[in-house]
Please model this.
Amino acid sequence: MKKPFGLAIAAGWLALTLVSPSNAATGYEAYYDLLDNTPWYDGVTASIQYQATAVDGEDLAVWIGLDNYAEEDADLKWIQGGWGQQHTGQPLIYWEYIGADGTYHIGEDVTPGDDEVYTQKHQGNQALWTHNGIIYKQVDWITFNGVAFSKGQYGAEMQPDTDRTPGTVASKNRFSSTQVRQAGGVFTPAPLAGVVSNAPNGNIEKVEAVPGSDFQTWDTRN
Model:
C-alpha cells in the first residue's frame, strides 16, 4: 500500500489523516479499494459495531471514508466518519473532511450506538454524513470540486500502534454490509481488495460467509 492510514491530534480532538509508511507509531487494521479511472467514488457506507475498548495511548478511531490517494500528503483530500475516542474522553461519532481548498474540518456528534450504519455520500448538491439515517453533517458538494475520490477505506486506527484494536477473541468487532458507490451508480459491496494490518496485537479478517462485504477486527490481549 502506498500510504497507510494515520491518526494525529488536532484542536483537542481527532485528526485522521493519511501519512507516509515511515510513521510506525500508528496501528491500522483496515481494508481499502482503489479505482484507476472514472467514475470516481462519491459514496461509502457500512454498519459498524461499537465495542468498549480501553484507550491506553492517545486515540482510537473506527471509520469509513473516501480520499484521492494523492502522492503527497499536502495534496490529500478526504471525507471520513465513524466513531472515535481519546484516552481521557468518551466515545463519540465524528465527521471530518479536507476540501479542494486544503482546509481541514472536524466535529463530533453523539455517543455511538451498539451498531450504527455510517454513510458519507453525494446527494443533490450536498455531501452528507449520516448515522442510522440521521444527517449529522452536510456541506456543499462543490467543496470537493475537482477532487477525484479514487480510494474507499474502512477499518480501525490506533495511536500508538500498541494501543488496543476494537474487539476480542471471543467477541470480534464487526463491519457489515460495507459498500461503495461510483458517481452515477448505486451502492455495491466493497471488494475489500487491499489490506493494511500492522498493529502488533491487532487482527483483521473477512467474514467468508459474506465475501467482499463483511469483516471483523480484534486484539489478542482483550
Observations:
- Residues 1-24 have pLDDT under 50 and may be disordered.
- The two ends are 28 Å apart (CA to CA).
- The chain is about 0% helix and 50% strand.
